[in-house]
Amino acid sequence: MSGGRATTAVLVSILLGAALLRFLGLDNGLPHVVGVDEGFEVHRALRLGAGEFDLQRDAKGGFFYLLFLGYGIYFVGLFLLGRVDSPTEFAQSFVADLTPFFMIGRVTHALISVLAVYWTYRIGRRMYGERAGLFGAAVVAVSLLQVAQSHYVGVDLPMVLLVLVTLELAHGWSDARYPARPALLGVVFGFTVMHKIIGIAVLVPIALANWLRHRRHSLVRRLFARELLLAYVVAALVFMIGNPAFVLHLGTFFDDALEALTGAPAAGGATLEAPNLWLYYFEVLSDDLGFALLVFALAGGALAAVRRRPADLLLLVTAGAFYLLIAGARTTQFYFPRYALPLIPPLGLLAGRLLDRVVGQLPMGERWRGWATAGIAIVLL
After folding, report:
1. Distance between CA atoms of residues 146 and 144, nearest Å
2. So what's the pLDDT on residue 263?
3. Is the separation of the CB atoms in 110 and 63 below 8 Å?
4. Which of 288, 291, 340, 347 pairs with 113 at a CA distance of 20 to 30 A?
5. Residue 244: pLDDT band with limits 50, 70, 90
6. Taking a C-beta distance cutoff of 8 angstroms, is the pair 368, 310 a contact?
7. Rounded distance, CA 34 to CA 39, Å?
8. What is the mean pLDDT of the chain?
9. Helix/strand/coil (H/E/C) assignment for every residue in the chain
10. Residue 6's closest CA among 140, 127, 131, 138?
11. What is the DSSP letter of 338?
């Protein structure tokens, strides 16, 4: 089998495996037991269909717009089949059996998770080559956190996909040989933060990409290039239009953010001791990836820090920014394993980067290097 066909076969196998892990058991618990955030997103989408907009949740959102579209298609299908005659009957069908509505959300969510596996491969192939891309995709495909979260409707995995798209655009932005795409980057960045506020961490790789693009120009341009400011403006508009609750609750949001970052209690609240989140999230990653693979990924990060290619720096600052944001918080209640989800693709790609480097140094032909890559990958995964 030629190299190109072999790569395609391995990628298809990884995607099929990822899909199998994510789609098996999607009906778990329904209609009686649902995930923590599932009800919020499903009901927000249905309320939007009824002409009501949720103005309460200001730190999460975005995915319910896609659910709203899915429910609209479902309504049209039922209407054409003669199952419902009006939106009122459609609402009554939800009250009678919520399972189809939650399954639409879960299937959509699982598809997004599979797409994140593919996007990890895209980025890895572009940054380091086929081997690194395939290994990074395999890491995300079998990640316990990624698989577990894909079984329930939520906003974390859609945010992860948007982080990956943003990272790909930022990588293109870092190279002055290619045109900047500030409007597109701004839209994706805005939707990233709209889905979950911690997506603001991708501001760091975006800023770094602009610095790398203009590293031979003045300091002002490296920091405040016109196209970068345009991307920020577009992102802010997308975020505020899609999430008006943030604007309405701006004061409350900053109070909550201050409490999370400093540990200062809210008005009338009690002072509690926050856990050691630096150790907590390291243990989360170790449990998810396995200690050996995590060490391998960190070694890949060390190699990237030494080499300091644009791709290396972008992956390092992306992982570092998210880790600092979630582990540096002083909150006493809002810490969950799923907050580490954005770290898994960069770590997988850094591990793939090291794997590609190690295998590339082996004194053997390309075919045998492929077998060596597969063997090492199986042991680590």
Report:
1. 6
2. 62
3. no
4. 291
5. confident
6. no
7. 7
8. 87
9. CCHHHHHHHHHHHHHHHHHHHHHCCCCCCCCCCCCCCHHHHHHHHHHHHCCCCCCCCCCECCHHHHHHHHHHHHHHHHHHCCCCCCHHHHHHHHHHCCHHHHHHHHHHHHHHHHHHHHHHHHHHHHHCCHHHHHHHHHHHHHCHHHHHHHCCCCCHHHHHHHHHHHHHHHHHHCCCCCCCCHHHHHHHHHHHHHHEHHHHHHHHHHHHHHHHHCCCCCHHHHHHCHHHHHHHHHHHHHHHHHCHHHHHCHHHHHHHHHHHHHCCCCCCCCCCCCCCHHHHHHHHHHHHHCHHHHHHHHHHHHHHHHHCCHHHHHHHHHHHHHHHHHHCCCCCCCCCHHHHHHHHHHHHHHHHHHHHHHHHCCCCCHHHHHHHHHHHHHHHC
10. 131
11. G
Render pLDDT for 150-204 as a digit per residue (tens, 0 to 9): 999 999 999 999 999 999 999 999 988 888 899 999 999 999 999 998 999 999 9
Long-range CB contacts (< 8 A, 24+ apart) of 236-243? 236/190, 237/186, 237/190, 238/186, 238/187, 238/189, 238/190, 238/191, 238/194, 239/190, 239/191, 239/193, 239/194, 242/61, 242/62, 242/65, 242/190, 242/191, 242/194, 243/58, 243/61, 243/62, 243/194
Find the largest Cα–Cα distance for the chain.
70
And the tokens for 358?
């190690």
DSSP state string for 260-275? HHH-PPPTTPPP-PPP
Question: ∠150-67-167 over CA atoms, to 5°?
Answer: 60
